[in-house]
Design goal:
Blueprint (H helix, E strand, L loop, with lengths): L1 H14 L6 H4 L23 H13 L4 H13 L4 E4 L3 H7 L8 H23 L10 H26 L17 H8 L6 H18 L12 H14 L5 H13 L22 E5 L23 E4 L1 H10 L2 H7 E4 L15 E4 L11 E5 H14 L3 H14 L10 H15 L6 H7 L3 H6 L24 H6 L10
Antiparallel strand pairs: 1-3, 2-6, 4-5
Helix pairs in contact: 3-6, 3-7, 6-7, 7-9, 9-10, 10-11, 10-14, 11-14, 14-15, 14-16, 15-16
Subcellular location: Cell outer membrane
InterPro entries: SusD-like_N, SusD_RagB_dom, TPR-like_helical_dom_sf
Family: Belongs to the SusD family.
C-alpha cells in the first residue's frame, strides 16, 4: 500500500516538472525504513489516545514475527555449539555451518523484519508526543514513548550484533514533497553508521525508557524500567571495550527492582508460571487464534523434523556437570525410527528442545530473565576482581539446579565457569552465540566442535564470519550500503 502511495506521489512530482530529481525518483526506496502510512503531505495522522495505544501495540506485535518466533533461536543457538540447524532448509544449514552469503533468505528476512519493527517504533516516538487528545495524559504519553524506545533499542542491539555497522534510522518518513526531497533522500537510502554510533543510540534509547517507561505492568510483555536496565547490562557487556562497572551497576538496578528466581528451574517452562518473578521481558502469547506462539511447533514434535536439534556437545556438557534438572527441562529424547534419519543422532534417541512445550500456541517466550542478569553480574565482578561476590552469584544459580558450589577460584577459572553456567542455564534461549562472540571465544570453541563419534565438524569459522553479510537484496535497492569484508 505504502509503495503505491509513494509511487503516485513521486509521479505527481515528475508531472510538475521536477526533473532534476529524476535519478532519485526512479529508485525503489527501502520500504522497511518508512512509515506504514506514507503520505504526500505533512499532516497530523494520529489524534486520539486509542490511536497512540494502537501504534504501540503494533510495535510490540512484531515480537511475534518469524524473527522472534524462530530465527532468533536459530541465530543464537544453531549458530553456536548448542544446536544443529535441524529440519531440511538450506538457509539454516548455511547459518549453522558458517557458509552464508549475501543471498541467504534468512539474512534478508531478518534484516527486513527487524527494520520493520524499528519503523513502527519510530512512528510511535515521532507521532505520540504530537497527540493532543485530553484522554492521553502526559504521563501515559511519556510511558508510551519510553516503551517504544525500549523496542527500538532491542531491535538495534540485535542488528548491530548480527551485521556490525548498520543504518541508524531514527525518524519516520511521513511525507515526500518537492520541498523535502533532498532531506528525505538520505533517509530512504541510508548509509551504514559505525557500531559506536549505534551503541550510543541504544544506550540513549534505554535511558529514555528508564526515565519515562512504567516500573511494571500487568504482564512482562512491556518495556519497563527494569527491562531497560537488564538490556543495558547486556549492552555494556557486549560493547567494545566492555564496561564492567556499568554492567554491575545496571545488574544491581535490576536486582533492586524486586525480581527473584523461581524456586524450581522447570517452572520457567511448565506453562503454569508465566509472567513470573524471574521474567523481565517476556513475549505474551495466548493461543493460535489470539496472538499465538507458533514457534513452539518449530522445535518439538515427531510430525516432522524440527529446527534446532540439540548437539552432542551440549548433551555431553549437561552430563559432565551432572546437571539432570536443567538437561531434562531443556531436552527430551524421542524414538523417531521410520520417520527420518539424521547425520548426528540415532533414530532411537533423537533429541528435541523441551523448553517450548505447549503446541496450542499459548506458551510465552522469555527473552530476558533474572538468571541471565545474575550471571552477567558475576561476570562483571570477576573482571572487577571481586571473585567472592562473583562466586556467590554463580552459586545462587547453580544451587537452584541442585548443583554444588563452584570449585573455581582464580579469575581465569571463574571466567570459564560462568561461561559454562550461562550455556547450561540459558540453552535454547538465543544467547549462546552472542556470548561466544562478545567473549572472544567463538572461533576456538566452534572450530573444535566434533560429532557424536569424535569427528571434526569442520566449521572453519574465521573473524569475518562473526558478523553476517549485508543482504544483497538491500544493496540492490540502496547502493549506499557497503558490504562486510569477506562476503
Amino acid at each position: 500500500m505504502k509503495k503505491n502511495i509513494l509511487i503516485i506521489g513521486l509521479l505527481a512530482l515528475l508531472s510538475a516538472g521536477f526533473l532534476s530529481c529524476k535519478k532519485f525518483l526512479e529508485r525503489d526506496p527501502l520500504s522497511q525504513y518508512t512509515d506504514q502510512d506514507l503520505g504526500s503531505t505533512d499532516t497530523v495522522k494520529y489524534t486520539t489516545a486509542g490511536q497512540a495505544e494502537a501504534l504501540l501495540q503494533s510495535a510490540y506485535q512484531d515480537f511475534k514475527n518469524e524473527y522472534f518466533m524462530l530465527d532468533n533461536f536459530v541465530n543464537g543457538d544453531a549458530q553456536s555449539d548448542n544446536a544443529y540447524a535441524g529440519a531440511d532448509q538450506v538457509p539454516n544449514f548455511q547459518i549453522d555451518e558458517f557458509r552464508i552469503d549475501a543471498t541467504n533468505s534468512n539474512v534478508s528476512r531478518d534484516w527486513a523484519d527487524i527494520y520493520s519493527q524499528v519503523a513502527k517504533a519510530n512512528t510511535v516516538i515521532t507521532n505520540v508526543p504530537r497527540i493532543t487528545d485530553p484522554a492521553l495524559t502526559q504521563e501515559r504519553k511519556d510511558q508510551i514513548v519510553g516503551e517504544a524506545s525500549f523496542i527500538r533499542a532491542y531491535c538495534y542491539f540485535d542488528l548491530v550484533r548480527l551485521w556490525g555497522d548498520v543504518p541508524l534510522v531514527l525518524e519516520e518518513i511521513s511525507s515526500i514533497s518537492a520541498s523535502n526531497i533532498e532531506q528525505v533522500y538520505p533517509k530512504l537510502y541510508p548509509s551504514r553508521s559505525p557500531k559506536a554510533d549505534v551503541y550510543a543510540q541504544i544506550i540513549a534509547d534505554l535511558q529514555t525508557t528508564i526515565a519515562k517507561a512504567p516500573a511494571s505492568g500487568s504482564t512482562k510483555f512491556i518495556g519497563t524500567k527494569g527491562a531497560a536496565h537488564a538490556l543495558l547490562a547486556k549492552v555494556y557487556a557486549t560493547i567494545e571495550p566492555h564496561d564492567w562497572t556499568k554492567v554491575n551497576e545496571q545488574a544491581d538496578a535490576v536486582i533492586a527492582a524486586g525480581y527473584s528466581l523461581l524456586p524450581q528451574y522447570d517452572q520457567l517452562w511448565d506453562n503454569a508460571h508465566e509472567n513470573s518473578s524471574e521474567a523481565i521481558f517476556e513475549i505474551d502469547c495466548i493461543d493460535w487464534n489470539t496472538g499465538g506462539n507458533w514457534g513452539t511447533d518449530m522445535v518439538k514434535g515427531t510430525d516432522w523434523k524440527k529446527f534446532n536439534t540439540p548437539t552432542n556437545d551440549l548433551v555431553n556438557a549437561f552430563n559432565a556437570e551432572g546437571d539432570n534438572i536443567r538437561k531434562n527441562a531443556s531436552i527430551v529424547f524421542e524414538d523417531v525410527t521410520g520417520l527420518w534419519t539424521d547425520r548426528y543422532w540415532p533414530a532411537t534417541t533423537f533429541p528435541f528442545i523441551n523448553k517450548y512445550r505447549d503446541h496450542s500456541g499459548g506458551q510465552n517466550f522469555i527473552l530476558i530473565r533474572l538468571a541471565d542478569i545474575l550471571l552477567l553480574k558475576a561476570e562483571a565482578l570477576t573482571e572487577l576482581n571481586d571473585l567472592t561476590g562473583a562466586k556467590a552469584l554463580l552459586n545462587q544459580v547453580r544451587n537452584r539446579a541442585k548443583l554444588g558450589n563452584t570449585t573455581a577460584n582464580t579469575q581465569a577459572d571463574l571466567r570459564l565457569a560462568i561461561e559454562k553456567e550461562r550455556r547450561l542455564e540459558l540453552a535454547f534461549e538465543g544467547h549462546r552465540w552472542y556470548d561466544l562472540v562478545r567473549t572472544g571465544r567463538a572461533i576456538p570453541v566452534m572450530n573444535a566442535q566434533k560429532d557424536g563419534n569424535g569427528a571434526s565438524l569442520g566449521y572453519n569459522l574465521t573473524e569475518n564470519k562473526l558478523i553476517w553479510p549485508i543482504p544483497q537484496s538491500e544493496r540492490d535497492k540502496n547502493t549506499n550500503l557497503t558490504q562486510n569484508p569477506g562476503y
